Amino acid sequence: MSGRMERIVIVGAGLTALRAAERLREMKFDGEVVIVGDEPYKPYHRPALSKQLVTGKLATKDLFFPAYHDIDAIWRTRTRAHKLDHGRHVVHLPGGEELKYDGLMIATGVEARHLAGAPRHDPRVHALRTLDDAIAIKETLTRSKGRVVVIGTGFTGCEFASSCREMNRDVTIIGRSKTLFGKALGPELGAAIGDLHRRHGVDLALGVDIRHWATGPEGVAIVLSNERLITAACVILAVGSMPSTDWLAGSGLVLEDGVLCEPTCHVVGASDVVAAGDVARWPNLRFDGVPRRVEHWLNAIEMGRAAAENLLAGKSRAKPFTPLPRFWSEQHHVRIQAAGIPAIGQQTMYLSTRPNGAERSITGYIRAGKPVGIVGLNQPRTMIHLTRQLDQKLRPMVPSERVRNATPRRTPVENPSVANAETLSERTPSDSKIDVSELSARLKAPARNGR
């Protein structure tokens, strides 16, 4: 297939694009590779923005990724794609330029979600998504000494709060959820991580809304629904993200919560187009046939490479992309590691010390009697062992020819939550042998200390 393709265009110039371009060259694609991105930079390490960059452990120049292979690509940075005409195989660029392609990869990622009412015009109020955002935040922190307020209870906001405490800054996390990471990790583990933040001096204002904002020379005033007033020298908006798909409006593609794809990363409704990374929503047949997005750093790498392979192979020879998602975070020197999709779990079970302040635990997530995810706190060796077992246990479904060629249903976007899930709590000595098979087996036995 590569011999018939003369130009492959990748829209999005992040890590996904870089690793996809490398894979194209590894597979001996000798045509033109054009990478289009709206930022002025080549790919850089986004997770480091909320940690090493803001604390000064790394400088801006340290964040850029090297290419492992000579990709011989044409980089069109500072260039925002405006429109896709997949019938004509054209990406529209500024100034009326039409960039033709033989194969296209959509890798535009996500953008920071806006918070209604937030005074974005104030230079002390920031989103945190890009390198320029992080540089601006660092400048605000350097100029001020007051409290930092983080709006949002997800990983980005919590990592940033941890970084602020490393710098001895007062910090408050505000969120509607009653726990941190409620949808991602479940209420009990979220509560345990909340306790970790409290023990390290983070003020948590959870289960509240913001009623009013006011800006003045003394800071940014925030009035909460419980009548509490907080004054901030710096505000970080970390209320989630949205897929960057505005440029695809009118293209005919399905754009509910990202670009809808087939199991092989091929975009539904377009020929010779794949999508990869945070922007792509596809059914991972390792779990089920429900299309989901996965916003993890490792997935950006793996999906970029898989999509590049399948673009060259063509639909008829493409293979389903069925990774076992993995991600990690470090907060207050506690490493949080996860494998699978904990958010779709209906029940949880502790495989080692319960996370009630111990900061060392393994939590398993179960759906329909089967393990679908594990999360470990400061258990790196055990997590390696369990991740391998989970990988073996969650074998991808082998699609039939009918399923392989079927279009994913345009069902409402899934928003899984484990907030109301039954929790099975058991304690296993931390030095005992741990096996993910216990997650299924223990469901048949009554839970001790369960609720």
TrEMBL record:
Residues 7-304 form the FAD/NAD(P)-binding domain. Residues 424-436 have a biased composition (Basic and acidic residues). Residues 327-395 form the Reductase C-terminal domain. Keywords: FAD, Flavoprotein, Oxidoreductase. Residues 399-451 are annotated as: Disordered. Its cofactor is FAD. This is NAD(P)/FAD-dependent oxidoreductase. PANTHER family: APOPTOSIS-INDUCING FACTOR 1, RIESKE DOMAIN-CONTAINING PROTEIN-RELATED. It comes from Kutzneria chonburiensis.
